[in-house]
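Bench log. Compound arrived from synthesis this morning; before running ITC I wanted a structural hypothesis for how adenosine-5'-diphosphate sits in the protein. Inputs:
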Amino acid sequence: MKLNRLSVKSLCLLIGAGTLFLMLLLTGLFFALTGDKMILLCGAGLTACALIGLAFLVLLFGKRLSLFTNDLCRILDGMISGNEEPEELLDSETLFARIGHRLSRLYNIMQENRRKVDAERAELQMLVSDISHQVKTPVANLKMVTDTLLSKPVTEAERTDFLQGIRGQTDKLDFLFQALVKTSRLETGTIRLEKKDSLLFDTLAMACSEIVYDAEKKDISVSVDCPEDLSLYHDSKWTAEALFNLLDNAVKYTPVGGKIVVTVEQWEMYVKVNVADTGKGISESNQAAIFRRFYREDRVHDKPGVGIGLYLAREIITMQGGYIKVSSEVGKGSVFSVFLPIR
Ligand code: ADP
């Protein structure tokens, strides 16, 4: 018979039987030793008292236990429905109170998880509505152009125009799709950044090589000032991607004949990479918003883009323990500063 498997009722009966047996045994023993009948009388009286006391204790304990069980059930019901914080159980230092504290902690953990799930759901809803918003225009354009091509006779020149339009819209959709895949892989941890000691100069060279052609086309000068031997603990490929996004914007939003200057400074805890341009600048009121997914300023809709570059860049840099800052003046230019931790 295992004690911890016994029900409370059987345990009480067992204690009662044990007490009765012990009292009878002691009484019998004393009576056998003394032969005094008073012993029998006292023994019977004491046994009766002990049994009554025990019954009283059992009743009291049973009542207390049932009160506690009711409290516990009420609290658990509240927790299941999710809208009540468990109130403190009456006892402050007993076993019941310890259960109460743990329930409180469990409730807080459940609430935290619930909040996280709600936030993720809201984020997902926003993402889906953002994507559908982004996809709507190119898809509508594609339908319109293909309908026209199918239903009307067009000249060779018009046909080329329409096909170029189709190409532009499919490029936009492809870019959007690639960017979304990248961000979702980064966010869900499917892609892990692999930080290792490597030369920042090489990372910058990788990023710059991709904008040189576009910069030349707009006659924008690009200068880079970075120590060639500066080794930094970072993910070179993804950092190059983030820096490319900043450089690509600098080219896109800087007028013909402008200037892009990239400088690197070594601080005590961080390495700071500045990407400065002489472009159109960003008003102070928009400077926080430009890092949001799909945010584009109203005045840039003549330029290609879907508003994901800065979001992705910030995601990549924060995942490495760094951050991005912007300072800008409308009409004069912008400076994007990337701070990457030394270790
Ligand atoms: P996209 O360039 O595709 O619009 P981004 O996320 O890269 O998306 O940038 C968000 C917005 O921030 C841009 O639409 C633009 O309004 C502004 N922006 C970013 N970089 C610059 C810059 N160097 N100069 C001026 N405006 C910028």
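What the model suggests: The pocket of adenosine-5'-diphosphate is lined by residues 245, 249-250, 253, 277, 279-280, 282, 290, 295-297, 300, 305-311, 334 (CB under 6 Å). The chain has a mean pLDDT of 89.
ITC booked for Thursday regardless.
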